[in-house]
Amino acid sequence: MKLYHLISGIIGSLLLSSGDLMAQQLHPELPQHWVTVKDEETGLRVDFPQSPLEMTFHIPSQNTPSKGLLHVYSLPNEKGILILSTFHSSSVDSKWIEKESIHQFFETILVPHLFFNPAIFQDQQIFNFQSIEIKGQESASFEFSFLDHKVLKKLEGIAQIKDQTLYISFYLASEKNFDQGLLNKFLSSIQFP
After folding, report:
1. Spatial CA neighbour of 40 closest among 73, 13, 3, 63
2. In the chain, N or C: fewer CB atoms in 10 Å?
3. Residue 69's Cα: distance from chain center in Å?
4. CB 173 within 8 A of CB 80
5. What are the boundaries of each domain within the chain?
6. Measured between alpha carbons, how far is 37 from 189 in angstroms, rounded to an integer?
7. For the segment 103-128, what is each residue's pLDDT rounded down to a tens digit?
8. What is the CATH number of domain 32-188?
9. How many whole angstroms separate alpha carbon 5 and alpha carbon 79?
10. Closest Cα to residue 168, out of 140, 189, 192?
């Protein structure tokens, strides 16, 4: 009987979620119900349009001494994907948000763990970077573009550091479907403890 209620609850929530998604697709003017996610390790809060998936990776791997812990929140949708990654390591300092460090972090840590085919990320890649300040905190703004099976993809976001943790928040979508408003709302919701 308990199993029946559990399965009924899962099916009911799936139907409710797909009904909400269908309503949003039919009526895009309706407000989305964003949810606030709190990273338990760091206390950082950020808003996503729905509850994101969570993944954790030991870097470089579980069979060697750990150099850091990568925690990723991701929310794919029909047009792209929103991602917040936190990388905690005793080696993280202000140099990690410099141009070459951000590029290397994507190439060696994020892309190999998050992309099905990491080689695509380098296909005709263009990388733009700018040092910025957000709420008095040294930060970085970045943008990648690359070809994914002849479709131009755009990845845009920000990087910040606090207490030996590198925070990278970004949105990835085809250039044609890139939703700057979605990215702006996502990035403006970030709150450090």
Report:
1. 73
2. N
3. 15
4. yes
5. 1-31, 32-188
6. 10
7. 999 999 999 988 888 999 988 999 99
8. 3.40.1000.10
9. 34
10. 140
